[in-house]
């Protein structure tokens, strides 16, 4: 992301913080808490997270960590977000077996993890017209087992100057160039779909 892209996202969240100071899901950009949780539930259903390391790109306050702990015994969680205030709050929570970094995940090299997730963080416009494709490829390289991310659905979600939506069939077609084991889940929301991209299992 370039400086202007990052600045737009920064002011979007800063504005929402002013409007809803006591409502974390709203500050993060969600319609409400249920909107955030419905995405987490779908992500959690797509893979066995037990004993896995998880990389959460655009982690916000790190809410996925306590959520996934209710369902699985994960090995370790790493959250990355470029919004310093979110990372500061996430660190304050002192969540177990976790680490948080303030960084632009599109620019930095991603550390290898078993499962890479991105919930709500690939929905912003970027001046790089190949942003999504580059990110999918980058996430795939960083994952040992699976990549799971959601996107706004172009069929139902009208884009604005900040938020971008996508056609699931186009995204899936690209994912198929990386692995035949990929599919879309879109039954949980009108505005959104989840992409699941798994690595072929290697046999010793
Ligand atoms: C809609 S919020 C979702 C937060 C979190 N995934 C959740 O569901 O609670 C999207 C987050 O992605 C972050 N983000 C977007 N693009 C990013 C990038 N290139 N690098 C790091 N963080 C990014 C934003 O700062 C924002 O906190």
Automatic annotation (TrEMBL):
Lineage: Bacteria, Pseudomonadati, Pseudomonadota, Gammaproteobacteria, Vibrionales
Name of the molecule in the record: Class I SAM-dependent methyltransferase
Membrane-spanning residues: none
Keywords, ordered alphabetically: Methyltransferase, Transferase
Naturally occurring in which organism (per UniProt): Photobacterium swingsii
Gene Ontology process terms (BP): methylation
Domain Methyltransferase: 54-139
InterPro entries xref list: Methyltransf_25, SAM-dependent_MTases_sf
Gene Ontology MF term list: methyltransferase activity
Matches recorded under Pfam families: Methyltransf_25
């Amino acid at each position: 992301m370039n400086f202007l892209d990052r600045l737009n996202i920064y002011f979007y969240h800063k504005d929402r913080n002013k409007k809803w100071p006591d409502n974390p899901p709203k500050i993060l950009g969600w319609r409400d808490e249920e909107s955030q949780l419905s995405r987490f539930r779908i992500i959690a259903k797509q893979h066995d997270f037990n004993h896995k390391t998880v990389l959460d790109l655009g982690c916000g306050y790190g809410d996925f960590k306590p959520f996934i702990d209710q369902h699985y015994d994960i090995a370790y969680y790493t959250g990355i977000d470029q919004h310093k205030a979110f990372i500061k709050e996430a660190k304050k929570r002192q969540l177990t077996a976790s680490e948080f970094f303030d960084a632009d995940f599109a620019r930095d090299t991603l550390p290898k993890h078993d499962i890479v997730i991105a919930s709500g963080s690939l929905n912003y416009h970027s001046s790089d017209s190949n942003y999504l494709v580059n990110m999918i490829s980058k996430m795939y390289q960083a994952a040992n087992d699976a990549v799971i991310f959601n996107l706004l659905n172009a069929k139902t979600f009208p884009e604005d100057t900040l938020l971008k939506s996508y056609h699931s069939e186009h995204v899936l077609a690209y994912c198929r160039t990386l692995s035949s084991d990929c599919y879309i889940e879109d039954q949980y929301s009108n505005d959104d779909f989840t992409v699941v991209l798994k690595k072929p299992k290697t046999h010793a």
